[in-house]
Amino acid sequence: MTDTAIPYALDSTLALPPIDVETPCFVVLESAVLHNLDETIKAAGGAHRLVPHVKTHRAPWIVELILSRGVTAFKTATPREAEMVLDAGASEVIWSYPTLSAAAIKRVIGLVGKFPGSKVVGLVDSFEGLQIWVNLLAGREYKNLALAVDLDPGMGRTGIKPGPEAIELAQSVDRALNFAGWHVYDGHIQDADIAVRERRCLEVRNELLALLAKGSELGLRTALVAGGSYSFAIWAKHTDARVSTGSWTFSSSQHQHDLADRHWKVGAYVLSTVISGRNGTVTVDAGSKAISPDMPMDRRFAGAEKIVGMKEEHTIVMDPKMQPGDRVALVPRHACTTAYLYPRALVGTAAGKWEYRDQLGCER
Length: 364
Ligand SMILES: Cc1ncc(COP(=O)(O)O)c(C=O)c1O
Prior knowledge:
Layout: E1 25-29, H1 30-44, H2 60-68, E2 73-76, H3 79-87, E3 92-95, H4 102-114, E4 119-124, H5 127-137, E5 145-151, H6 164-176, E6 179-184, H7 194-217, E7 224-226, H8 232-238, E8 242-243, H9 253-258, E9 268-278, E10 281-284, E11 301-302, E12 306-310, E13 315-318, E14 327-332, H10 335-339, E15 344-348, E16 354-358
Parallel strand pairs: 1-15, 2-3, 3-4, 4-5, 5-6, 6-7, 7-8
Antiparallel strand pairs: 1-9, 9-10, 9-14, 10-13, 11-14, 12-13, 15-16
């Protein structure tokens, strides 16, 4: 096995670090991230229409890289991520996590005051949520704070049903604070078949555009932030919405399979050592504490022919090509929950060096 090519990965051009590193190790390939960024900006219809989610990487250096390509607005799931993008100089952050946790909302309101030159957008999907914002603001007015209404496109996670109550909520936001517009994440649409994906996404679009038109008749803004990895390019092509994918950053074994039309490269993997072998199986040193813990066990990564069993620190695999002592690249099925496990990444830089760079990991 050579140091420069990986025989077991989906992408045989993945580079291995030519240095001795302790494994398991989260490896990021900067050139692939840059390639993915350029492809994503193109599919979004320009940097001004892309609002990339940072939950995938939680890495300040990647935020800086995105800013350097002309993107100015970001989406985040947690207050800590919002803080990270504002610290990096973003002009807008959309905290896309409607919550009833007053403490979390208070923390984000603190950022509004701390970064007066940047716009902070929160989400609400209920009147209770709006009331918490109003109570915590206690009459203080911030020109750089606005709230958007989160719509549920059938995903069943968060968001208010598109309909009269959603309009009433938007009107209440408009009266109480500053209405930023609408937000929708259709992460339940995960069809590898492009025609099916497009049909399902356009059904959501039609329902939402009808709602936005009704809102517009009542004087509400029609600004919309929409989509994720499977749908953002469809939203970009068929609407004026700004679009928000996160998974573009590193892609994943799932996205390499389902989203070949995006032309993303694998931008991150877990470097692992084969530490043992017996009776037709080998054991690698990356277990459920190292890679995609939220995925079904037998599909947590690509890079071995078959995953037989997984423990905290070990995975038992069947792959006749793997020998004890080999170093292997395991491409996560879910890059977001993998990056989250590591406070730093070993980065193969665009300039051809290898260096560790910090990321938030599981910091909240
Ligand atoms: C609200 C929201 N927006 C955008 C994204 C990014 O989507 P994706 O990972 O599909 O690119 C996510 C991911 O879960 C999300 O929860």
